[in-house]
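Q: My labmate handed me this sequence with no annotations at all. I'd like to see what the chain might look like in three dimensions before we decide whether it's worth expressing. Could you predict it?
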Amino acid sequence: MSQNTKKSSKVDIFNHSIITSLFLLGWPMIVSNLMQTMYNIVDAYFLGKIGKIEFSATTITWPIIFVFISFTIGFSNATVSLVSQYTGANNKKMSQKTAGQAYFVAIILGFTLALIAILVSNPVISLITDENSKDVIPFAIKYFNIIMLGMPFAFLFNISSSILRGWGDSKFSMHMMFYSTILNTILDPIMIFGFGPIPKMGVVGAAWATTISRIFIGLVSSYLVFKGERGFKVHLEDLNFDWYIIKKILMIGFPGSLSHTITSLGFVVIMGFVSAFGPSVVSAYGIGNRIINLITMISFGISAAVTTMVGQFLGANQIEKAEKTVKIAFITNFTIVAFLSTLTFFFGAHLTKFFINEPEVIEIGNIFFKYVSFSLPFFSSMSVFVNTLVGAGRTGQSMIIDITRLWGIRVPLIAIMAQSWGFMGIFYAMIISNILALIIAWLFVRFGNWKKAII
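A: Here is what I predict for the chain of 455 residues:
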């Protein structure tokens, strides 16, 4: 690869307008996140053709899978925060050393969490699955365990993407996700329904398709970063244990990881309430969440750009530009998601039918979208403020927001409202918690102490 190609992969936010930088950094992350969500969408589409029991297996296990994945997210965010601030401060050596130590953490943590997850899968899945959904349990356990085999490699990919994103290259993640998603899309129908010598595997086949794709993306992305193909190179000596940097990654990453893990546990509890209403509600809820995730991936892309830009501007001590970045990103995100939410409001039944063509599921899915859609701009815009704090390295504050949103608001409301209004109570609680979450996040950014670099 030529030197010119390497240089072009990095977005220099100091030589672009804020809106241009948001676009250049954000759109590849949006595409990357959309393709990440396509993993679940593709699984859901093909498994929905088998039946709602098989479909529900992935819906029930996803919150548990995310508990383990989420513990790694904080360390990925810490990597973005540190690499971006060192990049803003023009300290290339520390950027590379931090990247190497992030890989060290990823390797140890990824394999440890995968082992723990497999060991606890049976009792945990059985615990959260209500009697009305007990037929799902055997499918769910098999799916979960196979997905966990690919988790260490998914973490390697996340760290590789975080390193380059902090440096200013958000297209890398998009390119890697494109190849991985194509591979998963090809493997899914082959391994679910069988083809030639490959037997029909159903839910197990969907899990293997995803896991093989994640192993591929983890190994290839790491190789490219160490080879320096994108213009940022990690050397083998950067892997040598450095307690000073490891401690920094852990101190910044642990609050975020704890936050995401506790939040994910909240979704496991919520799934317990949902599963009490049977496979039809579980399926409709699962479809609704997948579509919501598809929309909020746009927000996460914009917010990821905010993380990089805030980190680099703070590292360069350009406070006003950091503040302006947050304001422009919020307005842009709210406007886009409001438009998309209007579409889900009117076409919710059609979206549900695309996955599962069963009248009861379609009816519940339509209700879900009618109620939850208008609160999405509030929930998704919260991520702009949360990622502002992440870029600044204030992960403790972002942790408070996430935990309060779920455990302080949504879970208690669902517990109360589901008793009075059935599954509708779950939708009411989602609306209220989404709006209040935005207000809480805004208060932290408006009155917080995030405008000072941590390096």
